Amino acid sequence: MNNIKGFPDSFMWGGATAANQYEGAWNLDGKKASTADMMTGGTHTVPRRITVTTEEGVHYPSHEAVDGYHHYKEDIRLFAEMGFKSFRMSIAWSRIFPNGDDATPNEAGLQFYDNVFNELKKYNIEPIVTISHYEAPFALTDKFNAWASREMIDCYVRYCEAIFNRYKDVVKYWITFNEINSLIVPAGAYLAGALLVDKRGGVFNNTAVDSTQLRFQALHHQFVASAKAVKLAHEINPDFKLGCMINYSHGYGSTCRPEDMLQALRMDQINNMMSSDVQVRGEYPDFAKRYFEEKNILIQMADDDEQILKQGCVDFYSFSYYKSHVVGTRPEGDETQGNVFGGFKNPYLKATDWGWQIDPVGLRYILNHVYDRYRIPMMVVENGLGAVDVVEEDGTVNDTYRIEFLRAHIEQMKEAVRDGVNLIGYTAWGCIDIVSASTGEMAKRYGFIYVDKDNEGKGTLKRSKKNSFYWYKKVIESNGEDLG
What are the DSSP E strand ranges found in 54-119? Predict the structure, then answer.
């Protein structure tokens, strides 16, 4: 009989960032350009551009980001002050293998992460490391269009071997790819797949030219690479825990009309479950095979790909969750924005300044839905509110809106735990202000820690605590009991 009252004592509270949005130092100590480093700034109304070469006088947000490369000790100290049990971060692939296919890894890059992990260990903070988080060495995109080619698999596995061996005694939890299912939609072609399908005029716009066949083939290559990495990781250190990471696109049927409910089911299957089925169960589900046939998608597989997928099933399921939307018969209202995926507005929900609809109950729904399917440990590794923060004259940031957002979602996580879901961790996204991946903005802030920098890249980079900093500290101290 289930008598669970709250989060387990071992629950991993923490926060999350990504190297390309946090570190900066894009060309220091042997690092070369990543795909993220070729993206210009933008706003939520003006799209970012992807350039083949860096242009003079153009702002590239990831080049400096919030300079975590030089501030990581200060930042980790602040994380520790909040009481973090875990920190989800990523390793910049082009910091370890600058060209992606180098004969040997870059020692300066490896040493940087040695230093980061040592700093985390000093405060007993568990690293959760994403191996590939929306970036790849740009040289591989330029050489053979990155994940469009099977050559990318060997490059990725060589990179994994280097970091698994180097950090085998300090990292336990690894995530193979960030939001791997984002490759399903055109907006994910470059972001998640490093695909340059159009170089006209030296500028690439990944919404202008797209190939569904190319994206799904690239996704298959990532599935194979992930499975090989899982198998290799377990051979190097049997205590390693490897996870998938899904950009959960949660859609409700717009009505109780059977066709609308079926469309919501279909969207959930293709957008979410197909990728996790491959990574958790080790095979493509039957509904995906029908989808490929209907869309004239032909996945080219090597003879042993199916066996590789079976041998490389992940140990835990992690995902990002920011919003939900509606699918089916178009309801009253306009389309709503989201994290790569979108849909129609839900009249019962409010939205953020960026149009992402706020749905805490949807998080409980997903946790139950996914856990019922896979029965493996789960982590919420991205969740948070992007908002415009105002610094008062006394230096404070009264972000009560962020506290309200997080409180509501943590309450629903607790309910899911009481439902019996094996939820082992929660890392709030952008625990320190970072550059937005989708827009390149700094104005869209998620952090508990304010960073003095604007959309044009100007500012002192000074760190300061928002009111949410002190609130989250209480949440962690009480293991989720004090949400006041």
Answer: 86-90
Strand 250-253 to 449-451 pairing: unpaired
CB-based burial label for 457 (10 Å; 0-12, 13-18, 19+) = middle
- Kindly state whether residue 6 falls inside one of the protein's structural domains: no
Q: Could you tell me if 353 and 443 are in contact, meaning their C-beta atoms sit under 8 angstroms apart?
A: no
CATH classification at residue 316: 3.20.20.80
What pLDDT sits at residue 467? 98
Domain span at residue 99 reads: 12-477
179 is catalytic: yes
Q: What total of structural domains would you count in the chain?
A: 1
SS3 category, 226: helix
Residue 350 lies inside a defined structural domain of this protein: yes
Which among 222, 240, 244 has a CA at the least distance from the CA of 231? 240
Q: For residue 437, how far is the Cα from the chain centroid?
A: 10
Residue 3 lies in a domain: no
Determine the angle formed by the axes of helices 68-82 and 467-477, rounding to 10 degrees: 50
| Cα-Cα end-to-end distance for the chain | 30
From the candidates 23, 64, 126, 179, give the one annotated as an active-site residue: 179
Contact 444, 337 (CB under 8 A): no
Identify the segments of the chain with pLDDT beneath 50: 200-208
Residue 7: inside a domain = no
| Catalytic, out of 74, 382, 393, 481 | 382
Give pLDDT, residue 341: 67
- pTM for the structure as a whole: 0.95
